[in-house]
Amino acid sequence: MRIDLSRPSINQISTYTCLTMKNNQRRFIGKLEVSPIGLGCMPLSGYPPEKSFMLDNRDQAIQTVHAALDAGINFLDTGDSYSPTWNPYGHNEKLIAEAIRSWSGSAAAKAKIIVATKAGITREKNDTWYGELGFNSTRSYLYRAVEGSAARLGVDKIKLWQHHRIDPKLTIEEQYENVNTLKEHGIVENFGLSNVTVAQLKVGLKIIGGPKEGGVVSVQNEFSPRFRVNSDVLDLCTELGIAFLPWSPLGGIGKPKNVTSDSYATLHEMANRKNVSVFALTIAWHLAKSPITIPIPGSSQPATILDSLSGSEIDLSAVEFAELENGLPETSIETGTYIPKKPAAN
């Protein structure tokens, strides 16, 4: 089997993507109409470590956002903790705000951009992504976090705000009660939860409400061909009409160490047959799993986000989808990407 781990260049895919995106079906987060995929913006602020070069490539970061917007992607995912260090906190939010301001799109087009941010992870002084992460879901902290995000994004209201992670110092009920009070605060238009189990999601829905009650409209969990332990969360979201936003949707599927005859060969073989990248085919797999799925692949250059977007134009028959599903390992891999570990001492 020929395994091609490369992605198409910007010249190979940009024109195709821009043309086909015009007629592509949109998806919904509550009442918000969005593109079939979003842009995961965290790599633009230099994380994970192999993306640290982006700290010296601000122009490339801005160009990546502009390329996504030009191609019709109107959903950008960020977070207040997406920063190379504790200071400046909110690095990524400021970057996204700058990219939107400098984009050549019309005022009407800019009004349709949905920026999702999140809070609940704290960063201590001198902490980096290799250090221990803290959590804070107290009412006072969440209020300050929401106000800070709105200021950095340059908006009066945040179109989608997500509770980032469970705070182990509080009960699930306490922190979701605190999230619920943000409705009265007036800055958040729509609420999402992130990194939750089915049990935690059900508690959140009971306290905050679902889409019909002006409550939770989205769930953002890690999900990919390599990490499928959240399938039950996806099933519940599909049942209730809650948007499911897979983070790390590609899951390192194209790395040589993850390509073996016993694991993801079916993905690579089908990608070869269809003459598409394995990354684009993985996006197509996500979109075929449920009409409420909106993957948010991270990207640090225009060509990669456009290649991911091209996955929304890949038609998978029921037979092909079943072939992909049956070709995945029975047990998905625990990727360990939730909390980065401190590197071993030399």
UniProtKB/TrEMBL annotation:
Pfam family, one: Aldo_ket_red
Annotated keywords: Oxidoreductase
Gene Ontology, cellular component aspect: cytoplasm
Annotated ranges, domain NADP-dependent oxidoreductase: 37-325
Residue ranges of coiled coil: none
Keyword match Cell inner membrane: no
Gene3D superfamilies: NADP-dependent oxidoreductase domain (3.20.20.100)
Protein name in the entry: Unannotated protein
Origin species: freshwater metagenome
